[in-house]
Write a structure and sequence with these properties.
The chain has 14 helices and 21 strands. It has 442 residues and is an alpha+beta fold. The protein starts with a strand and ends in a 6-residue tail after the last helix.
């Protein structure tokens, strides 16, 4: 493998694990950071631990400093680990930097401007669940009173102060309606950020993702996430407690019926980056839920740690420089599993021990080094992600769980039911349903 220079641009260090792996492969890596100014009480907690993440592991340099010297990094591979700092990303493209991935104004707007994203989805001919915006809890409760037989999901426009995404537990729609009614009644009336109620559809939830370079698709995969922290789909909602990931042909039915439709829009004619969509497959249709077209969520960890058979440096370089011949050959057959390990009492300085034989399977996040000691930074609950591989979903699930059990620290928490098929969101049943609908083949 040739030594390359990678610049990982971040605002929350979610690309820490990728940067670490790139360094271990012998690449030069610059972790270019600019911290997000904290706004909510939760973000103020994060801000205390953020400056520590990756310390002792990485060459961390302020983004302003890297941008000021950017001409000397024109041949580097620039990867933005989330949809942030589009001004910098678009500037690099405008100045002719050849290898920039992410940092797109288009994807920033798609993720952060709900109406913009939904309008693109509709323009592509895709369906969306019924979605209504409200300004006060009273408005939403009145609507639920008029629709007592229907279930909805609560999504805030401005999270914080108790206004967080809420999905009712009951699978019976009238009871779910009552759950949400009670939740709305409990909210702080002082929050005026607004929210939406989105119809809860019954079907198969799946994330399909396509990668494009200069508007041309060259790779696709599917991801089945479990989004509650505790076994059997209990506990709070989170970004992704565990998941199963697998490659999918670009011309597969599921890809072409979802992200493939978006890719044909003129907005993506020269787009380079991820294009993903979380959908519910129901009633012979595909209902758009949300975008997450960026690094920084478990599917990419599963893919690049669990399924990759080539060095990550080769994969991340080829996807940006256009060396795309036989790109699927970078990945193994079968399935990758990922489990997030949490800290029930997040705080700075907790010692973390990772058995030496599984360290290569760990995607680090809320950690830093002091000498040889690995410690928690205290930014939040997510400490790291364990990954694994298998030629069946059960084998992949058991492999990642075996790895996860070799990580030790106080107050460790994680799901242990990825291999089971007796809870609502289990990946095995969802994968079989997609197969039965022929969504994973052309």
């Amino acid at each position: 493998m040739n030594k390359r220079t990678f610049i990982i641009v971040t605002q929350d260090f979610s690309g820490f694990g990728f940067a670490k792996k790139l360094m271990e492969e012998g690449n030069e890596v610059i972790f270019a950071y600019r911290f997000k100014e904290p706004e909510s009480p939760e973000e103020k907690v994060w801000a205390k631990g953020q400056p520590l993440i990756g310390k002792g592991y990485l060459n961390r340099v302020p983004l302003e400093e890297v941008m000021a010297k950017r001409k000397q990094y024109k041949d580097a591979y620039w990867h933005f680990d989330q949809n942030h700092y589009p001004e910098e990303g678009e500037l690099l493209r405008k100045e002719g930097f050849p290898n920039v991935w992410g940092g797109s104004q288009l994807m920033y707007d798609m993720e952060n401007e709900r109406d913009f994203g939904v309008n693109l989805v509709k323009k592509a001919g895709l369906s969306t669940p019924e979605t209504i915006e409200f300004r006060s809890p009273e408005e939403g409760m009145a609507f639920l009173d008029q629709n007592e037989e229907r279930a909805f999901v609560f999504k805030p426009n401005a999270p914080g102060d108790g206004w967080e995404t809420f999905v009712p537990d009951s699978d019976k729609d009238p009871i779910a309606n009552s759950e949400l009614h009670a939740y709305l009644d409990s909210l702080n009336r002082a929050n005026t950020g607004g929210y939406i109620l989105q119809e809860r559809l019954k079907g198969v939830e799946v994330n399909f993702e396509m990668w494009l370079r200069d508007g041309v698709p060259f790779f696709a995969f599917g991801d089945l996430e479990c989004k509650k922290q505790d076994n059997d789909d209990y506990g709070p909602m989170c970004g992704g407690a565990q998941d199963i990931t697998f490659t999918v042909p670009i011309d597969a039915k599921g890809i072409q019926a979802t992200v493939g439709k978006l890719a044909k829009l003129p907005e993506f004619k020269h787009y380079t980056g991820f294009l993903d969509m979380n959908v519910i497959v129901a009633d012979n249709d595909n209902y758009f839920l949300e975008f997450c077209a960026r690094y920084g969520y478990p599917a990419h960890v599963s893919l690049l740690y669990g399924l990759a058979k080539s060095p990550i440096g080769d994969i991340m370089a080829n996807m940006t420089d256009g060396d795309l011949s036989n790109f699927y050959e970078h990945f193994k057959y079968g399935f990758a599993g990922c489990i997030t390990l949490y800290n029930t009492e997040p705080r700075k300085g907790l010692p973390v021990y990772i058995d030496e034989d599984v360290e290569k399977h760990m995607f680090l996040f809320d950690l830093y080094k002091r000498g040889d000691q690995v410690l928690t930074a205290g930014m939040g609950e997510e400490v790291l992600m364990a990954t694994g591989h298998g030629f069946s979903i059960v084998d992949a699930a058991e492999d990642v769980l075996d790895h996860a059990r070799k990580v030790h620290y106080p107050s460790r928490k994680m799901r242990t039911d990825l291999a089971r098929d007796d809870y609502p969101s289990n990946p095995r049943d969802r994968y079989l349903a997609l197969e039965a609908m022929r969504y994973l083949v052309p």
